[in-house]
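Researcher: Good morning. I'm working through a list of sequences from a screen, and I'd like to move beyond sequence-only analysis. For each chain I'm collecting a predicted structure so we can compare shapes side by side. This is the next one on the list. No need for commentary yet; just the structure.
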Amino acid sequence: MPPSNALRLLSLIGLSSLIMNTAHAQDEAYYYGGLSIGQSRGNFDQNGLSSRMLPPGVTVSSVTSDERDTAYKAFLGYQFNPYVGLEGGYFNLGEFDLSAATAPPGSLNGNLKLQGLNLDLVGTMPLGMNWAVIGRIGAQHAQARGRFSGTGAASTIASSRDENDTNYKFGLGLQYEISPSWLVRIEAERYRISDTTGGHGNVDLYSLSLVFPFGRTSTPPPRVAQAPTYVTPEPAPAPAPVVLAPAVVPMTAPPQRVSLSAESLFGFDRAVLRPEGKAELDTLASSLSGTQYTEVIVEGHTDRLGSEAYNQTLSEQRAQSVKAYLISAGHLDASKVSAIGKGESTPVTQALDCRGTKRTAALVSCLQPDRRVEIRVNATR
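Model: Good morning. Structure tokens for this chain:
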């Protein structure tokens, strides 16, 4: 990268950091970096470009062009919350060639190379199960380098044209969270670019990106409701020799209920277990080893943010994920384990505890106790 571009990139990153530091802290905020590779496709007015380059009296009879090339990006960003992020970086859209035949006979040959810096506002709409739709809109400062030469009637053309131009860009794509520290994106973006001859064209970029969050907040410790303490009854006094000892009758123990915070088990708005969540379930399954139980009921709960239908589906997916793990990794009897989703119907918080309906960091934090998975064990002693 030329020194001037490196300076611009550093300035862009500095501006981004300033904006990030003034933003309010939100749920699931983190920094990230990433790399993209893909194919760029130019869409320039080749006839118009050629005509602007030719001397008076010379016209274009035919044009051929190569407007596809390999492109790549490197970027840094900050995710303010699950829905909004700011991203800046460097892009290289490759180079495009044209060859025009002229009348009177001659030829015009051209080459256009494109690179620059961008700053985008990135919106994310979670779809559940680690998928999300992403959209972006922003500004890009592109450096276009045009090289033109001619023969015959166009032999007087020998031109090098460099132009720096700031314009818009936008895009749409899909994102999949493989793990909290590794995401994959597939995107289509459009850049509005100068052709160095007074005209503009569009360059479309289709890319695959690897995104690496490196500043995510740590997973909060699980909220575990204390299970009832069982005390072994005092041994009965020894009976008199003439009295028979009472027969021991199996008794049903009070149900044990354990409540695990959803944040300790899953990512935000996700239903795939995190490693930390699996460790919590391993501990629970180990505590049941050797216990005589008749039923294990897994209940999924959400807070009241979002639609009732969506929350119901998410609670069911989370309960099913916990059930599947307790059976497969915890070796619990599948015939005795059930899963149900209760959505937002049974909150822990009271209506006056957490006021408001608009999703804010304070409201999300206040409603944290409602986002949970409860496991009830009916055992005998």
